[in-house]
Specification:
Blueprint: H1 9-22, H2 38-49, E1 59-61, E2 70-81, E3 87-97, E4 101-103, H3 107-116, E5 119-120, H4 122-137, E6 141-150, H5 151-154, E7 165-172, H6 173-176, H7 178-188
Parallel strand pairs: 2-5
Antiparallel strand pairs: 1-4, 2-3, 3-6, 6-7
Helix pairs in contact: 1-2, 3-4
């Protein structure tokens, strides 16, 4: 997958300093010397949170004809709400029913990270992961569930400390076949099948 756009950390740090000043915090306040580097740290932190690591979406021929569900649970999700620039964190559960191709298992967390490392909504993130898997693998079905806690709800606004959000995207037989759908949710929720 391609890398993100070039970043101008100097301009971001300068904007961070202006942002702080606009909110009444002077980064050059001599009584608080640690604030002098805050704009640079701020810029570096956001650049890191908005830059996915490059990777190749490695696929293999399904020579064994494996036809059962492949599920990777509890993939860490760390993203930034595009409305408030605040983090949302949680986990993703990703599954697919192979057809002619299978994927290197490490690529499932990588594809989640690829789409999470940008300004994002949880709904879009869920759809993008499902669409990418469907496009690259052309499987018989895809299921993605993302569970996250949003700082924009827990630290500000409603301040609902324990609220979490769950989104899902189901494709192919994971959407159309009730038994396959039920198996997916049982596996995601930890039930034996």
């Amino acid at each position: 997958m391609p890398e993100g756009p070039e970043r101008d950390l100097g301009a971001a740090a300068a904007a961070g300093a202006e942002f702080m000043r606009a909110l009444g915090v002077d980064p050059s306040d001599e009584s608080r010397p640690d604030l002098a580097l805050t704009p640079h740290r701020f810029a570096t932190a956001y650049a890191e949170m908005l830059t996915p690591r490059p990777f190749d979406f490695t696929t293999f021929l399904n020579v064994e004809g494996y036809d059962e569900m492949v599920v990777v649970r509890d993939i860490a999700v760390q993203s930034l709400c595009e409305h408030h620039l605040l983090p949302f964190v949680g986990v993703a559960h990703v599954a697919y029913l192979p057809a002619n191709l299978i994927v290197g298992l490490s690529k499932l967390p990588r594809i989640v990270e690829h789409f999470a490392r940008r300004l994002q909504t949880q709904e879009r993130l869920t759809l993008q992961v499902a669409e990418a898997l469907e496009s690259h693998l052309q499987p018989r079905g895809v299921g993605v569930v993302v569970e996250a806690t949003h700082s924009c709800m827990t630290l500000r606004g409603v301040r609902s400390e324990h609220a979490s959000t769950k989104t899902s995207s189901l494709r192919g037989s994971l959407r159309s076949d009730p038994a396959t759908r039920a198996e997916f949710f049982a596996l995601v929720n930890g039930a034996a099948h």
